[in-house]
Amino acid sequence: MNEWKTFEHEVAEAIRANGIIFLRRAATEMAGHDDSEDTAFDHETGTVVTVLTQMSLELAMASFLVKHDGIRTILTKPEALSDDQIREKWQANELRTKTFQDYRELIASKHVERYSDFEEVVDRFQQSRNKIMHLHFRFEEGDLYDLKYEATFMLVHIVSRFICEDDSDHPNNVANLLSREVFQKLIRFPPYQYHVEKIAREYSRVVLRCPMCDQKAFSDYELKCFSCGYEDPSIRLLTCEHCSERSVIYDHLNLDINKKLPTLCLICGKRQEVFKCTSCKGTTIGGPPYLRCELCAEDAQSQCLPG
Fold it and tell me: C-alpha distances in angstroms, 275 versus 232, 248, 284, 299?
């Protein structure tokens, strides 16, 4: 890594660290709300959460752009500055950066996969934040209630993805950023549960209960959770002997090197075992005396028992 790239990396990390500060403060403010009766945020909480969440997003996006496209992408009139001048102005806190709207347009054009699905939620936050910062924003009680969903969605599915980028272990990444206790409290807000289940229904035949966060927001088609963000390319589903739904989750990559693996039905919670059929090599769920191979469709105790 050359000297300039090292500098840009340091800048991206510094901005990212500030983004994490605002992310954590917003989440902590939300988690401090007494939600025992599923009430709306008060005006002060709503105001603070909106501003902190929006700031965390702006910083996370700026860090992302510097990391992937260089520091000049976030500067106003970068062509007028040499590398040395940019470095000097950074050290003196004198760099002038583009607006949040500029960041949005850059990411929409260069990194559309990171942003395209969330514009509506981001639009509402930006408008509220601008009114709070420049004048006053009068929240309706319904807005303060919906904010429990919108702010959680922003932090869990948008800001944290710009900060972490690693989607392979998203729930643990977010829990490490916020603390597991705070993370769990946020995704258990009733309006958040309602909306993520609604989203999951758009991508599912049957919405299942997530094995990671236990929320009913896991898509049987996408094989991902719209609540905590859990997904794993190694998982597959089998039909449950008890529910008759394709709702039993197992790790198909590890089945080839194991005689059997534990499974969990994401509807009824039944725990069983999964085997490899020795007859047709298909996958078999259950255990004696109700073992049936899904591919050869035979009562296959003698054929399908491991070994």
Answer: 20, 13, 5, 14
Ranges under pLDDT 70 in the chain: 1, 115-121, 125-137, 254, 256, 277-282, 284-307
Q: What is the DSSP string of 80-121?
A: G--HHHHHHHHHTT---B--HHHHHHHHHHH-GGGTGGGHHH
Cβ 250 vs Cβ 274: under 8 Å: yes
The whole-number pLDDT of residue 298 equals 52
Note the pLDDT tens digit of each residue in 64-96.
999 999 999 999 999 999 999 999 999 999 999
Question: For residue 191, is the peptide bond before it cis, meaning its omega torsion is within 30 degrees of 0?
Answer: no
User: By the 8 A CB rule, do 235 and 254 touch?
Assistant: no
Task: State residue 293's pLDDT score.
Answer: 62
Euclidean distance between CA atoms 30 and 179, whole angstroms = 13
User: What is residue 176's three-state secondary structure?
Assistant: helix
How far is residue 156's CA from residue 227's CA, in Å, rounded to a whole number?
8
CA–CA distance, 17 with 11 (Å, rounded to integer): 10
Helix runs in the chain, H state only: 3-31, 43-69, 83-91, 100-110, 119-134, 141-153, 160-164, 170-178, 180-187, 190-202, 252-255, 301-304
Is residue 198 within 8 A of residue 212, CB to CB? The reply is no
Amino acid at 245: E
Q: What does the chain come to in residues?
A: 307
Here the tokens at position 108 are 């929409």
Cβ atoms of residues 225 and 210 within 8 Å: yes
pLDDT at residue 186, as a whole number: 97
Distance between CA atoms of 230 and 211, rounded to whole angstroms?
9
**Count of CB atoms within 10 A of residue 47's CB?**
18
Question: How many whole angstroms separate alpha carbon 99 and alpha carbon 81?
Answer: 18
